[in-house]
């Protein structure tokens, strides 16, 4: 890789241990991905926040570097393990709470915006087209590349943090122009958000770094998010392209058979003890839509709704949260369906959700069974 004089200086440790460490991460990442240089970025979004995912080693690392490290660019943050406002309502281990708060404080100390959201593209202004960013959250990286006209690789927790500290990222892979070698033809009529999530999951499995999709028609925001969330869980693919006339590349169909294969892989039960909505977290439009769908109805069982704090505050001002709470929803901020200790196999056997991403993590990380349904079906079956 070709480095500038300033970058070489940092790599040699002449700008301190933190900058040396960060540049070592970026250079190693760049060499592994055939980058020829580092380029400036304008925004970093970090994962590695939930104590369930980074553990004691991660908490100690962040505590140590927070003494000296500071971010150079706008830096936002993924969800943590609980909503700080109501964690006392749940049986969360005191050690988990202590360690999670330490992680939160470390990130705030180094200058990270405590957004605790996996949907930064809905709660922050999107930069101009082709802006280089560094997003570690998988659905956010795919959304940035596919719908927001930004450029990012599917970053790791370490590479995104290094980019936040240096303001640089390796110029490789999806940061350059990319041509997919596979086109998927959508062959499902009347798709729901669950269908789009399964399409994304399928595309992530069969695609390389990017994949073309045809036959989609108009999609709403929920369907776009569902596709990104599904793709983010199943492989390294990190970009959708939408070209109905793509030629000269392999074509495969996403049909009823392929959809059933994905459904059967992730749906492990026909009934859930609780309902969860929000993986990725729900934005304001989805909160509004859910409020309308629940008018005059109430959940027959516990329903956890995950949304960013910024969205929850907007929803409260608009009167949405009162209506959702009347319908039996627990509205949680700062956390997400995935990997939260609020849902575990000690007190929940199965969860009903409309999220492919949520289903994947609930099954593989939380260890609970999953009942997959579209939102419309959930409202029909689980409310009265």
UniProtKB/TrEMBL annotation:
<dbReference type="InterPro" id="IPR007506">
    <property type="entry name" value="PMDh-L-like_dom"/>
</dbReference>
<feature type="domain" description="Phosphomevalonate dehydratase large subunit-like">
    <location>
        <begin position="1"/>
        <end position="380"/>
    </location>
</feature>
<comment type="subunit">
    <text>Heterodimer composed of a large subunit (PMDh-L) and a small subunit (PMDh-S).</text>
</comment>
<protein>
    <recommendedName>
        <fullName>Phosphomevalonate dehydratase large subunit</fullName>
        <ecNumber>4.2.1.182</ecNumber>
    </recommendedName>
</protein>
<keyword id="KW-0456">Lyase</keyword>
<dbReference type="Pfam" id="PF04412">
    <property type="entry name" value="AcnX"/>
</dbReference>
<keyword id="KW-0408">Iron</keyword>
<dbReference type="GO" id="GO:0016829">
    <property type="term" value="F:lyase activity"/>
</dbReference>
<comment type="function">
    <text>Component of a hydro-lyase that catalyzes the dehydration of mevalonate 5-phosphate (MVA5P) to form trans-anhydromevalonate 5-phosphate (tAHMP). Involved in the archaeal mevalonate (MVA) pathway, which provides fundamental precursors for isoprenoid biosynthesis, such as isopentenyl diphosphate (IPP) and dimethylallyl diphosphate (DMAPP).</text>
</comment>
<comment type="similarity">
    <text>Belongs to the AcnX type II large subunit family.</text>
</comment>
